[in-house]
Design goal:
The chain has 18 helices and eleven strands. It is mostly helical and 475 residues long. It has one domain: Glycosyltransferase (Alpha/alpha barrel). The structure holds alpha-D-glucopyranose (GLC).
Length: 475
């Protein structure tokens, strides 16, 4: 066997033989990391996290192991909260204890953070499963439809703010510790867009569904995309406009809705954007936009078609332009730049795990690589005639080689520290599931079947709206 083949075989064995766990005789998902000698008691890496299982389920779908995916979705659905205050949310993670599945909705998490992304991923995963298998019967089943309904009632309830974004507390997604990511962080908004389209796609198959709810779901998705493109997309040109806006405006027809002062626009953006780069910024809040670059939110923005094909190309240009920072020795840096000094002290609450260049605070996470690879491969699949910068293909290969050479040697570590991502993360787990399966996905999309890059395609909003109108006319 070549070295490459043996690495793939090792990675698959770790996932299929060790990470996947059974409950009552059937697989319910994979633990976040394999246990290791000297594990501190009380850590939750032995639990099944919904977000960490996204790449696992995707890989299982690609491998035709669709039963496990359906069972995982059903298990999560059984754990969807029906309590008055949390009705409709899905847990961050669950674990078997004394013959029962115990879920964590945030009531056990470190710092009691809630994970909003888990809830948003469920409809997206359900859509992926139905797309790939054609299992309409499952999609139309009363349990799935009422799960979707509970989810939409949670998301679409009246609120104080008019903006179509979802307002969340700090640490509500993959970055599940304080890092000044409260408000309307990009990753949550992009996942919300995906979850709304996926829910609508799944509900449209089912005529008896609540049509009023479906209509609100479609309207929200439309407004959300428009809003993200208007407020989050930045490039050289948009920055020039932002820098010259008036402040202290009042009323309906103003340009600086969030009363953002020019001084809030950081100077590092000049180099970061280069000539042709563009990206979705991290967060929009009154007077306090967050211009940090977040890798996952941007890749999902491209994969889900929040940004246009042209903007996707600008995003890839930006990654190439900042390859030293974003890829370094271990793709990909989670966000850029880190919070430093007084900002780190105040905004993270002296969080020692999130020191500058560490963990969530600009550390490097191999589990993020497949999202970028998928974004690029998906672009190439959908726009085969478009000419991409040849550097992009070189970059893809570099990413693959770095992972292939480093990960088995570094025992599939969870994350890497330091400005280059050379050092294994100070508190990194080894044999981390999404590191392993993320590598398998990179391998699959680059070397095995680039055509599978449509796996995370969402239903198209215009098609959904058309189908909705047709259904209305039929009833
Ligand atoms: C850490 C990460 C989180 C991940 C969990 C399990 O809490 O911050 O994103 O889901 O570990 O791997």
């Amino acid at each position: 066997m070549t070295k490459e083949k043996s690495v793939i075989a090792l990675a698959e064995a770790l996932i299929f033989d060790q990470a996947l766990v059974k409950f009552q005789g059937a697989y319910v998902g994979a633990v976040a990391a394999l246990s290791q000698l000297g594990d501190a008691p009380g850590l939750n890496y032995g639990e099944v996290f919904i977000r960490d299982n996204v790449p696992v389920m995707l890989y299982l779908l690609l491998k035709g192991k669709t039963e496990i995916v359906r069972h995982f979705l059903n298990t999560c659905l059984q754990l969807q909260s029906s309590q008055f205050q949390t009705r409709g949310i899905f847990p961050t993670s669950f674990v078997e204890q004394e013959g029962k599945l115990i879920a964590d909705y945030g009531q056990r998490a470190i710092g009691r953070v809630v994970s909003v992304d888990a809830t948003l991923w469920w409809p997206i995963l359900a859509w992926m499963y139905v797309q790939r298998t054609g299992d309409q019967e499952w999609a139309c089943s009363p349990t799935v439809q009422s799960g979707l309904q509970r989810f939409l009632e949670l998301i679409l309830h009246p609120q104080f703010r008019e903006a179509p974004t979802l307002f969340v507390p700090d640490g509500a997604f993959m970055i599940d510790r304080p890092l000044d990511v409260w408000g309307a962080p990009l990753e949550i908004q992009v996942l919300l867009y995906g979850a709304l389209l996926s829910s609508a796609g799944l509900m449209l198959h089912h005529f008896e569904g609540d049509q009023h709810l479906l209509k609100r779901c479609l309207d929200r998705a439309r407004r959300l995309r428009h809003y993200l493109l208007k407020h989050y997309w930045v490039n050289r040109q948009t920055i020039q406009v932002l820098r010259r806006r008036p402040t202290e405006e009042y009323g309906d027809t103003i340009t600086n809705e969030y009363n953002i002062q020019t001084e809030m626009i950081p100077h590092w953006l000049q180099d970061w954007l280069g000539a042709d780069g563009g990206f979705l910024l991290g967060n929009i809040r009154t007077g306090r936009p967050d211009f940090r670059f977040f890798t996952l939110g941007n890749c999902l923005g491209a994969i889900f078609g929040v940004i246009s094909p042209r903007q996707q190309r600008a995003l890839f240009e930006l990654v190439i332009h900042n390859q030293t920072a974003l890829v370094g020795q271990m793709p990909m840096r989670i966000c850029h730049p880190p919070l430093n000094d007084e900002e780190w002290r105040r905004k993270t609450g002296y969080d020692r795990k999130n020191l500058p260049w560490c963990y969530h605070n600009a550390g490097h996470w191999p589990s993020l690589s497949w999202y970028l690879v998928l974004a690029i491969q998906s672009y190439r699949k959908h726009y085969p005639d478009s000419i991409l910068d040849p550097q992009i293909l070189i970059l893809l290969n570099q990413i693959y080689q770095l992972l292939l050479q480093q990960l088995p040697r570094q025992r599939w570590a969870e994350y890497f520290d330091g400005p280059n991502g050379t050092w294994i993360g100070q508190q990194a787990r080894l044999n981390q599931t999404w590191t392993i399966v993320g590598f398998l996905l990179v391998h699959h999309f680059l070397k095995v079947c680039p055509d599978d890059a449509n796996i995370l395609d969402l239903p198209v909003l215009k098609d959904l709206e058309r189908k909705f109108e047709t259904n209305q006319n039929l009833t």
